[in-house]
Amino acid sequence: MTDVALSPSRPSATANPWLVAAVVVVPTFMEVLDTTIAVVALRYIAGGLSATVDDGEWVLTSYLAANAIILPITGWLSAHLGRRNYFLMSIAVFTISSALCGMAGSLGQLILFRIIQGLAGGGLQPSSQAVLLDAFPREKQGVAMTLFGLAALLAPVVGPTLGGWLTDQYQWRWVFLINVPVGLLAFAGCYALLRDPDYLTEERAELKKRPFHFDSIGLSLLVIVMVCWEVMLSKGQEWDWLSDPFWRVQTLATLFGVGLVFLIFWELRSSNPVVNFRPLRERNFSACCIIIFCAYAVLYSASTSLPGLLQSLFGYNALAAGLVMSPAGFFAVLAMPVVSRLLGRQMDARWLIGAGLLFIAASNYWMSQMNLDISPDQVIWPRAGLVVGLAIVFAPVNVAAYLYTPPLLRGAAVGLLSLLRNEGGSVGTSMAQTLQERRDQFHTLRLGESIDPFNPAVHSFLEQAQARFLQQTGDPAAAQQLAWQALENLRAQQSSALAYFDVFWLLAAVMLVLVPLVLLMKRSVAEKGAPIGGE
């Protein structure tokens, strides 16, 4: 397969690159938003469609699985259909399927429409990123990636807040219907401004002259691998992972592992692969894949854990928790232009990446040191630090990733990096849920070791609580029972809080471990007129 190339110069289109950027980041924001906006509405969706909450989780799983299948093959689709045609088709189908999701009458219909939505949405991120890299000259690649980062980074931050507000103020169907007017505007803008650059037009004409060949075996293996992976991540904790008595997780893990080995073996031997793994041979690109995967895993882990902490232990509702988390997006918007300016002045992207990783690590460690007596502003600042750190990392990673990648492999590289960014989010969400529940059990047992009537602190607490409840009830037996229940509630509260803080501590450790990886990367400065990818 000949991948979609990303030209080091501007395309032949005459559209102002800033106008192009304005219209292509909208579909990206819309698509990434849909990975998180429905999270807070799951209980309402399940109730509205007469389904259980566990069954309602398939609304998320189906979208992520479909998204993951299409992301690695966007280079192949763009090359054969034309990038502009494929981008417009993706926006149109995504918008129509969003409307159908909002009108679904049953959970089965909603899951079907979410699959279609995910398949269409998967092409939006890589296509918009490729358009931006073509629209701006090489020395402004940092600006292009900053604009893309505003959409890809702010969407998962804004998603839970917007979803909670729409659900509370209107109903859950507007979580999907809000995409319709936005999608129509995006389609109109992209239709008017986008044109394929000359090198893509020539490549497509060349492909038309060749006999058509489709890697059906590669696509089949990809579907098996990604579906097994997403279902395992989504349902693993519910099914008790490898201790699943019905062997569902074990079967999925086996199919995933075997399928992945065969997929890599087949695609590396194929002359026309539907998924091209060859960009991973380049050191910078491989390092950036690992960094962006882990960074988004940390973002989604923290974005899952923090609302859970606020709602379960602080009594916040979904909207209040979202409002505490939202200011972080404002600080990210302030940080990104600074990063863009530094990259534009030929600063080595590696140092920005390292600084951003340290920023994320410090912010997660800050959150791990919180307690149950904090005020909302004491949550806002560490959360802001986390998102600002990711804002510092995002544009430099995207510059460094493609700097040494040959142009003919750029399309495949964009698809792989987008896939790993999304899968990082899936892994982070699953990891946070699993770790929190397991550590909650651990701390419950450890705290229970010292709770007995012979412990002076326990004895004092029970005496005071029993006296207070006796004044309220006048019943000694009921007062004693209520005192023990109060102690049990306190233990459950503290063990849950410690579990959440353990999650944040682990996320900080993950980011610190990644810092030495930056030192293994090659110098990454986007200089005007410098050769690209060994040209």
Biggest beta sheet summary: none
Globally, the shape reads globular
CATH architecture of the largest domain: Up-down Bundle
Taking all Cα atoms into account, the compactness measure Rg is 25 Å
Q: Give the SSE string.
A: HHHHHHHHHHHHHHHHHHHHHH
Q: What is the arithmetic mean of pLDDT?
A: 84
Strand content: under 5%
CATH superfamily of the largest domain: MFS general substrate transporter like domains
Class based on secondary structure composition and strand pairing: mainly alpha
Which range best describes the helical content: under 10%, 10-25%, 25-40%, 40-55%, 55-70% or over 70%? over 70%
Number of helices: 22
Q: Ranges with pLDDT <50 over ≥5 residues?
A: 1-13, 529-535
CATH fold-level name of the largest domain = Growth Hormone, Chain: A
CATH uppermost class of the largest domain: Mainly Alpha
What is the tally of beta strands?
0
Total count of domains: 3
